[in-house]
Amino acid sequence: MSELFAGYTTAWALYALGLVLLLAAQLWLLRGWSLAVSCALALSLAVLLGWPIEAYPGEPALAPALWVALFEGLLGGGSFARAGAPLATVWVGSQSLYWPLMLLLWLLRKLLWRRS
User: Fold this and answer.
1) Which residues are CB-contacts of 37 (< 8 A; sequence separation ≥ 6)?
2) Residue 113's pLDDT is what?
3) Residue 62: enclosing H or E segment and its boundaries?
4) CA dihedral sign of residues 104, 106, 112, 115
């Protein structure tokens, strides 16, 4: 069992570092766009590429849900829904929390701008 997890933590750390670098590059490339839209895209990338799920049912090892869903749906002969449904739920949840928060911040900014 320890042989299975020998490089597991290192692999996740490198994957997370790559994801952070990808998000930084995405924010830099879209620096001319609205901050709200650019951050919404960054949140979408982070959720879609970083959300973990069990790589195999019953195994303690985790893998990014998007890759598990694609592998099972296209190559593995399994069901896309095992990883795709939770991933879609988390993405919809993150966006449904993000946009009302951005609206609230916009309204507070407008309110504070009028008072000053």
Assistant:
1) 30
2) 86
3) strand 62-64
4) negative
Chain mean position to CA 105? 22
Q: What is the pLDDT of residues 11-42, one digit of tens each?
A: 888 899 999 999 999 999 999 999 999 999 99
Distance CA 95, CA 33 (A): 18
Of all residues in the chain, what percent carry a pLDDT higher than 70? Answer: 94
Specify the pTM. Answer: 0.82
Tokens of 99: 């946009």
pLDDT reported for residue 2: 61
Give me the half-sphere count of Cα atoms (radius 13 Å) on the Cβ side of residue 112: 6
> Which stretches within 30-58 are classed as H helix?
35-50
Task: Enumerate the β-bridge partners of residue 63.
Answer: 53
**Which residue is it, tokens 């982070």?**
46
Continuous H helices in the chain: 8-29, 35-50, 65-70, 81-115
* Alpha-carbon 81 to chain mean position: 17
> How far apart are the C-alpha atoms of 48 and 74, rounded to whole Å?
17
